[in-house]
Design brief:
mainly alpha, five-stranded parallel sheet
Amino acid sequence: MRLAERDGEIAALTGTLQEAARGLGGVAVVSGGIGSGKTELLDAVRGRALDDGFVTLRATGSWAERNSPGSLLGQLARYAEALSGRGDDLDQALRRVESIRSDADHGAYEQWPLDPATTAALHQLCTELVRISGRAPVLLCVDDIQFADSLSLHWILQLVRVLRSSPIALVVGECTLSKSAHPHLHAELLRQPNYRRVLLRNLSADGVAAVLAGHMDADRASALAADCHRVSGGNPLLVRALVEDQRHAAPLPGTDPALAVGDAYADTVLSCLHRGRTPALHLAQALAVLDEPDTGPHLAARLLEQDTTTVDQCAAALEEAGLITGGRLRHPAARAAVLQNLSAHTRRDLHRRAAELLYEDEASAVRIAPHLLGAESGLRSWAATVLREAAERYLAGNRAADAHTCLDAALAVCQDDGERVALKAQLAGTAWVLNPSISARHLGELASALRDGKLPDQHALTLAKHLLWHGRFEEAVEAIERMGEGDRSTDPDAAEIGATRELLSATYPPLVASAVLAAPGPSGPDRRRAARGDVRRLGAAALTRVLTGGCVVTAVGDAEASMRFLRLGKNTQEWIMCAVAALQFADRLDAAGSWCDHWLAESRTRRVPLWEAEFSSLRAGILLRQGDLTTARHCAEAALARVPAKSWGVCLGGPLSHLVQASVDTGDFEAAEEYLDVPVPESMYSTRFGLYYLHARGRYHLRTGRPYAALDDFTACGGLMRDWGFDLPALVPWRSESARAHLALGDRSRAHQLAREELALIGPGRTRSRGVTLRALAATGEPAERVGVLTEAAEILRESGDRLQTARAFADLGRAHRETARPARALPVLEMAARLAGECGARPLAAAVAGELERIRPGRTRCAGPGDTTAVAVGLLSGAERRVAVLAAHGHTNKEISRKLCITISTVEQHLTRVFRKLGVKARRDLPAEIVLEAAE
């Protein structure tokens, strides 16, 4: 087998063999780190020597036998019989050395110089080997000579002195990670005229690729080579271990090849370390504990209580062996293996000493904290302060899980009662963003501490928001009112109270009646100017303005302006949610979706479960309004997967309502019923999320044939919205939903009245909410009256981007055309409704439309394709608009059209403007004349 990148080394050793064959004995020392391929190279040289007629002898040093006299020499006895007659005297010489070994067990062999009897026995062994070389050249390979026993080293020294005039080649392998062989041996080797030193370097990236190519296909080898070289450092033994890991790893289909680093690699790292010097092993253990880039030898030397020179030498050897780089083990798997190999006591002790040393050096808290956590016990009094500071820095870096761990440890160490209360408040706040239910166990104690004056005021608002989440409104009001005690006009907390008021008034409207939150403040333009002093307030105030029927254009501008300035963090996330919701309820769905996707991606990057869950739920609500039922359901399910239902508190109404609505619209009524069976807190109905839940449950009741139950939910929803001043159809269209319930009960008059009321609230703007309400209004009229209203509704809803509501409007319009005996007008509209319903996954609607199509042309039902859009758009034109379009398509001027139809030129222009918008064209030359004529006929 050809060795990768070892051609030069083999050539050098082959030269030693050739010189020995000519009677010029020589020595070659092969040096390299553990796993560098010394043994493979020696085997390759032995193979060549055998081919060239050499007598080959081999022995290997062993750490376990390094103190056993003559253990290495004893390995030569196995060759005596194989020498067929030439080894009889060699056998006798070895037996004599064996007897020396027995005597040496008492320690005589350790003397330097040797006694005459030992020297004579070793000399006889050399003589026999020289005699054998007279018949055939001899190659003696000694691997791992650093582990050779002293007696065997003495013999090798004697042999070296007679090599230069004998056809004997001595090739020894030495590991640089281990203790060097006896210095006398190296001194003697350097004096030899035919001395060669072969230094084995680690493989290059190309060399690693060549090794991989011998075990896998070329493309995969090429793709993995760079990572394999980085992880192994080019160490051939580690490369082979990684090859073994690849054999046991199952690559995922359709994905790029990825390097698997598994047990074989970890075990080989440990094997390499245990084969080396003990100080090198200890250094690797210290580096695994420290786990810092470019730690330098000083800290590790202090941790190990070793001199810096020894640590420097070991670090160089570990680097050469490819085990460390930049003061760290090369891969987390290597670090994990080294730490796991330590006893628990030793590992904790190293961490404790590392923490103390770093504290003495005035290192940063985030450097010390991991070691305090690793020590687990026996910590000094300063540990709580360091852990708390580290937690604050972790929170600033959005590492909530690490912060929580530090605060938990600090609480266990801290003995001061006052400090413990503050730590519990911080711990509860940190646990909150991971899982609100984790912090719930601390809330009662913290509320009591606040009442007793033991909890610092700066924690009061955070505590209040946590209490609100869990529906503990009275305690929350008490916490907020405590913030209002005294004169805070110049207190920084006044700004925080103002920002919190904007936040809570949009989500917990009943709470605004509390003494602090209801305190007189600016309103109208003055309130907006005040909000501009705190960007967070600007976004929350925008939501309140939308919900209370204020200027939508201004609110949308403020919401987007706030998000352009805000960065996602624990003090901004809730206000950002309000700003996105403001866009959602202002029917700016594309902008709301884009911003929500941005913040959701940020939440995932920062690995904060609660933020990710809340933005996923918010995105689900936006997607529902865009008609994307499948994705909306996935987002809502992801929200409950990230934070379980029991941890959502009063906000559970958000994701549950989205899941119920998506299930109802897709016809999965069993799933909707299961979601409605999930227990919800009664206090949820005092929040905005309760409105969503009542709306979703009412729609479920209506679709499953229970109009009275539906009407109860819609009416309750409307009552709350009126009480809170949130009577906005864009939030929940409770009147149009109630109208449909009344229609199901046969009360057309009341349904018509409710739809009219809702339409008046919405105003003339072409919003999604107006389109939805127009559909409800049309349902209360006669078929002939519906066409015009539904035409407007379909046009508005198509512009809004809500595909599901557009499909419903098309379905209603097609049915109205059919009922007024205009099947030609109904057909393309119903076909488009069928296509949109299918795309949305709205199975009940798709089935209903299919039934309408079957009535028009039995057995020939089909869905409209993308090319049928123009025909459907033409179906949205009014009679007057179609007549103007026909003449314009045939080249008539506005003046000519005016004369022919007996209308003013201004009316012609208005009709053409609406025609262009509905058909999606910009000029009369783009008008589809043949379709317009067909529709007109």
